[in-house]
Amino acid sequence: MNEKEIKLILEDGTVFNGKSFGYEGSISGEVVFNTAMTGYPESLTDPSYKGQILVLTYPLIGNYGVPGVESEDELYKFFESYALHISGLVISDYSHEFSHWNADKSLGDWLKEFKIPGIYDIDTRALTKILREKGTMLGKIVFDEKDVDWYDPNEDNLVAQVSIKEKKVFGNGKYNVTLIDCGVKYNIIRNLLKRDVTVTLVPWDYDFIADDDYDGLFISNGPGDPKKCDVTINNIAKALKKDTPICGICLGNQLLALAAGADSYKLKYGHRSHNQPVLKVGTNNSYITSQNHGFAIDNNTLPEDWEPLFINLNDDTNEGMRHKTKPYFTSQFHPEASSGPTDTEFLFDDFVELVKKNKG
């Protein structure tokens, strides 16, 4: 096997030498880590990873290959979007052989198809400890000594890069929900469709207020700094003047909070895993959640008519909020999972119930 050398360089000067198993090229981005044990097909197609070099801490990756592109409801059945969005992939041990009932190709071939470098045979535990202690930092994957400039994806409006370009309608349900595509995961659409909802997916900067024919507003997940989405924030602020139910997930939580008057900040190394424990405020109920975000909302900046809905039990950060009198609520975690636990899928039921009640 002809394994070619490739290296990961961090902005603090740390260098990890490894072997290439993806696209043979050099890239730069923000280096982040995810501690999930499974689910790399879903994670790599999650638009929230746009511009990032993803480190998977689970030691063996690639052993179950990559699914095919079967579709259902005009959505890829086994992926969370139409493409891979990571800039690069860093793992410890790559399985060149794969086996799974719906595997169509190897992980390495998939990376090559989308021109994404992959590096393995490095100490991802040591790398993760650096990121945990020093915080998320910029990095480069350099192949064949072909250097590239440093690139900080958070300086760009990444949402504009991954959002749909034109409005698209899914399903034919009883209730009309406008879904703002800030980098939506397909499983959000799937969860709405199976609850008798017609989903109108609109671009991040679409003036949905002008349509004024929706029964509920849903704000999706997505990549990058929420403050880059000023157009979306302004549109949501207009929606807050109405009484139509609103729900936001992940970036959607942050955008709704900013529209309400709260503030956001960047986390040291973010939450990216399937085992984040959150507590529902005012109860003894805790849930294990799937998360992927690098920014958070400052609970101390929530306006008087808003309150935290969920709190992270590891670091006490905001995991969602709700309006005290109007039908608005959010989650910072992913109730649609995929990949991850399904403990909190009931939040889709809660949202649709608000839509039903509001429509009468």
What does this structure look like?
The structure is a single chain. The chain is α/β, with parallel strands linked by helices and 360 residues long. 21% of the residues lie in helices and 32% in strands. The protein contains nine helices and 24 strands. A seven-stranded mixed barrel has the order 1-2-12-9-4-3-13. Helix 5 links the parallel strand 15 and strand 16. The longest helix has 14 residues. The chain is globular and about 65 Å long. The relative contact order is 0.14. The model has no long low-confidence stretch (mean pLDDT 97).
Q: In summary, what is this structure?
A:
The chain is built from 9 helices and 24 strands. It is α/β, with parallel strands linked by helices and 360 residues long.
List its salient traits.
360 residues, 7-stranded mixed β-barrel, 21% helix
Write the layout of secondary structure elements.
Blueprint (H helix, E strand, L loop, with lengths): L4 E6 L4 E6 L6 E8 L5 H5 L7 E5 L3 E2 L4 E2 L3 E2 L2 E2 L11 E3 L2 E2 L8 E3 L1 H7 L4 E3 L3 H11 L2 E7 L14 H5 L5 E3 L4 E6 L5 H8 L3 E6 L5 H4 L4 E4 L10 H10 L6 E4 L1 H10 L3 E17 L5 E12 L8 E3 L1 E3 L8 E3 L4 E4 L14 H14 L1
Parallel strand pairs: 3-4, 4-9, 5-10, 9-12, 15-16, 15-17, 17-18, 18-24
Antiparallel strand pairs: 1-2, 1-13, 2-12, 3-13, 6-11, 7-8, 14-16, 19-20, 19-22, 21-23
Helix pairs in contact: 7-8
